[in-house]
Amino acid sequence: MTVRSDIEIARDAKMKPIMEIGQKLGIPHADLVPYGHTKAKVTLSYIDSLASKKDGKLILVTAINPTPAGEGKTTTTVGLGDGLNAIGKKAMVALREPSLGPCFGMKGGAAGGGYAQIVPMEDINLHFTGDFHAITSAHNLLSAMIDNHIYWGNELGIDTRRVAWRRVMDMNDRALREVVCSLGGVANGYPREAGFDITVASEIMAILCLSTSIADLERRIGQIVVAYKKDKSPVYARDLKAAGAMVVLLKDALQPNLVQTLENNPAFVHGGPFANIAHGCNSVMATKAALKLADFVVTEAGFGADLGAEKFFDIKCRKAGLQPAATVIVATIRALKMHGGVAKEDLKKENVEALKKGCANLGRHIENVKKFGVPIAVAVNHFITDTDAEVQVIKDFCKTHGVEAFKCTHWAEGSKGTRELATHVAALAEKGAAQFKPIYDDSLSLWDKVKTIAREIYRADDIVADKSVRDQLKGWEAQGYGKFPICMAKTQYSFTTDPNLKGAPVNHVVPIREVRLSAGAEFIVVICGEIMTMPGLPKVPSAEVIGLDAKGQIEGLF
Where in the chain are the domains? Predict the structure, then answer.
């Protein structure tokens, strides 16, 4: 059997004009700003007009810890959204925008796969509506204004050794992680050490995704701490008078992007913070708008539930006042066998014992999500090599945790492959059994918030950090930042900070290497282990096989 690539399937999609998709949601043509025939932005004025409408049910899709075997979280999100529509529910999905870095690196795109995709796939995975370029430009405008202020006399007294604002670009480029800028003589300014992060790690990205209006966006940008003076007092973006111009660059980017699934169901794709560096969720604007437009909104949080779901609950839902109604945890038999010790090359063989061992990872995530008071279902994203005996192992295991698991074949069959899951999830959400609560209180100290996440979610015995890190946290509390939530930055591959420790390890310690204040995003980033804010390309990057064919069509994008 010939398996068609994602891009081949997407290219044959019978897309409807985006105005018709908007019409399904009741959005007037005048409130859709088209970007071609199949993409549009929704005006902020229209979103404001929805404020009095009742909210739909919010469903989170999360996953086990990722492995090279693949989990298919975005594919399942799209498949579930299509499945809900197929059983007669008014549903839409809300997803993040893909970064160019992974597209040309090793992860590939982020528009789903098989017959559970959002389209136009090529546009979404590449420049889309220009949001990421706007974020990159706004971020680097602030960088330029910092160095320009220093050049023209440094009236604010910025200590050039303590400039905290790095530059960004939306591409994996390890050569730019640490650089020296302003070389070449007096005309180019004062030389200093600097560096680049990838755009999805930018605080501007996090701010855009957490902002609820243009005014809120400008307020948050103004309170970014860009540097410190010699007395270690902070310098804010508002001190440089940068916020107004940055908002001008971001005003269109704040508008959610409307596209469609392969089955012509509506989807918002907006914002894209990394999940192992930032908070890993699509924008609050898109999620809140979707809840006013549909009865069910299916959204996802990046990587495994230990990172994505925890941040979705503790940061996004807390800050935006969202009330999730149900959670779906995605697992694959292949990935669980890897967590049970099977090598990648042996995954096609049935191995019930290894699967049973690997289910400990799934069980840990189920237990963790239950702590937030949200009902759970498990989606077994099916591969053709999976056996009935292996599927039954997961179903039986989940029952011991009081949770139903469903074999899902949406990759091959679209909505037909998720009808059973969709029916169950809709019932869970409509039952109204969710009693959502974040895992820690705002009033807890920053150190204790980190410790709570490490103990309750990672099952660590303790956390450790140098005195300088502890002092930094106490200093921020004294400055009024103590109520901020925590944004953990750690490997996505394990509950520990060691990416090689799979399964459900216990009795480990979480080392904190560094902490960063994101005063505009209004959270504290806690960096554990070796986490790169500027990834590098692999030995054989995806960019080597991406190109145009004789017809001018894109090949190699997946």
Answer: 6-129+253-431, 133-249, 446-528
Dihedral class, residue 74 (left if φ above 0, else alpha if ψ from -120 to 50, else beta): alpha
Phi and psi, residue 119, nearest 5°: -135, 155
**Which pLDDT score, from 0 to 100, does residue 545 have?**
83
Q: Could you tell me where the DSSP H helices lie in 12-120?
A: 18-24, 44-49, 73-86, 100-104
Q: What are the contacts of 175-183 at 24+ separation with CB within 8 A?
A: 176/534, 177/532, 177/534, 181/147, 182/147
Which pLDDT belongs to residue 68?
83
Catalytic residue among 39, 73, 334, 502: 73
Of 323, 328, 270, nearest to 135 by C-alpha is 270
**Nearest CA-CA partner of 267 in 411, 123, 54, 53:** 123
**Could you confirm whether 288 is annotated as catalytic?**
no
State the pLDDT at residue 108. 62
Which residue in the list 24, 107, 162, 437 is annotated as catalytic?
A: 107
Active-site entry in 39, 41, 89, 96: 96
The CATH number, out of the four listed (3.20.20.70, 3.40.50.2300, 3.40.50.620, 3.10.410.10), of the domain defined by the range 446-528: 3.10.410.10
pLDDT at 2: 56
Active-site position among 268, 406, 411, 484:
411
Rg (CA), the chain: 23
Told to judge if 107 belongs to the known catalytic residues of this protein, a careful annotator would answer: yes
Assigned token pair, 496: 């520990």
Q: Give me the pLDDT at residue 221, please.
A: 98
Distance CA 174, CA 390 (A): 41
Contact 282, 299 (CB under 8 A): yes
Residue 40 C-alpha from the chain's centroid: 21
Task: Give per-residue pLDDT as tens, 27-37.
Answer: 999 999 999 99
Nearest to 77 by CA among 103, 110, 45: 110
**pLDDT score of 109:** 67
| 196, 303, 484, 495: the active-site residue | 303
The Cα-based distances of 35 to 192, 258, 259 in angstroms read 41, 10, 10
Do 405 and 394 touch, CB atoms closer than 8 A? yes
CATH of region 6-129+253-431: 3.40.50.300
Rounded Cα distance between 179 and 400, Å, is: 53
Closest CA to 488 of 534, 525, 543: 525
**Is 372 among the catalytic positions?**
no
Candidates 383, 476, 484, 558; catalytic one: 383
**Using an 8 Å Cβ cutoff, are 161 and 130 in contact?**
no
The rounded Cα 421 to chain-centroid distance in angstroms is 23
Q: Which amino acid is at 390?
A: E
Low-confidence ranges of the chain (pLDDT < 70): 1-3, 107-109, 558
Q: Is 152 a catalytic residue?
A: no
Topology of the domain covering 133-249: Domain 2, N(10)-formyltetrahydrofolate synthetase (3.30.1510)
Q: Which of 62, 67, 75, 452 is catalytic?
A: 75
275 a catalytic residue: yes
Active-site annotation holder among 63, 275, 289, 309: 275
**Separation of alpha carbons 1 and 53, rounded Å:** 49
